[in-house]
Amino acid sequence: MSINNQNKRITTLPIAVTMGEPAGIGGELVCMAWARYGKDLPPIVLIDDPIRIKKLGETIKCPVKVIPVSKAIEAIEIWPKAIPVIPLSLKNPVVPGRLDSSNSSAVIASLDKAINLTLNGETKGIVTNPISKSILYSKRFKDPGHTEYLARATKASVAPVMMLVGPELRVVPVTIHTSLANAVRSLCIDDIVHCAIQSADSLYRDFGIDSPKIAISALNPHAGENSAFGNEEISIIKPAIEIIKAKGINVKGPSAADTLFNPEARQNYDAVICMYHDQALIPIKMLDFYRTVNITLGLPIVRTSPDHGTALDIAGTGQANPTSFIEALKLASLIYSKRSKK
Q1: C-alpha to C-alpha distance for 204 and 338, rounded to whole angstroms
Q2: Model confidence pLDDT, tens digit, residues 130-177
């Protein structure tokens, strides 16, 4: 493919956006993003109920124009004049803030449609709106979350890795959707090595960093204090670091987590591998809650998402902040562009 044709393809594909939990704020985020910033955003194709989206815009006093489409490519001519929507039926009318398991099948169908479109090369990638995992478990959603579902549905060749990206920090948790007690029990050398390899690859491919620098956090206070506060640094983390170094990756650690995220420390690395979920998410959300984006590494497609939940308590009120969703759209488009040029 010539460079000109390749660049044309990059700019003429939309990003697939999923419904997410319809009782949550996902639809509102789309309406607000289109109404306020549509002309500055990459084209999207939403997979949802167009009537629902139209009414939702009216409910939150953010009127939107919605045009149903049958093919993703139609979105290019429609955006940003209107929101292009591939129609999907919901079993019951949606009440903002009130979960309804009858609509769970549509949530999953929206995700499956987005996956198929992207695997078939009809969209650049996927931005997933937040889901309510607990209610999906009553249907055929048997995975812990989006990340694991996407890996299985796309037949990913490696285990997926979750990276959180903000303006000032990138973090990767080794253990994700599990209790803290189980995170400690399950921590192992292989998983730390895998996260570091996937992170280094993403920093190079997706962010254009030729020689990525990766920091590895400790698990225990004061990095274990020579086993006084735990032995995981010596028995698990340090051996993992030696393997990572042997693969030619610039890595340092284990570093005590309480000093790893200050402004001076952040100048010394491009990403941090953290040992458990909250060790990674607390610092990045404290730095910039609204502009943090979740990306899934290890998939054969591009997937990003806003780094927050369904916010059922404010759904339908127009109080939702679309910033993370907007940043997720921008990042998905950027990553697709960089990968297409490699």
Answers
A1: 10
A2: 999 888 887 677 787 888 889 999 999 999 999 999 999 999 999 988
In order of start, what are the domains of the chain with their CATH numbers?
1-156+299-342 (3.40.718.10), 158-297 (3.40.718.10)
Distance of alpha carbon 113 from alpha carbon 334, whole angstroms: 22
pLDDT one-digit tens code per residue, 195-232: 999 999 999 999 999 999 999 999 998 875 777 677 89
Nearest C-alpha neighbor of 269 from the set 250, 256, 286? 250
Under 8 Å between Cβ of 275 and 175: yes
Reported pTM: 0.91
The residue type found at 295 is: I
Q: How many CA atoms lie within 13 A of 123 on its CB side?
A: 31
* H helix runs in the chain, sequence order: 3-11, 26-37, 50-59, 75-78, 104-119, 133-136, 146-153, 180-186, 189-205, 232, 238-246, 263-266, 277-288, 323-341
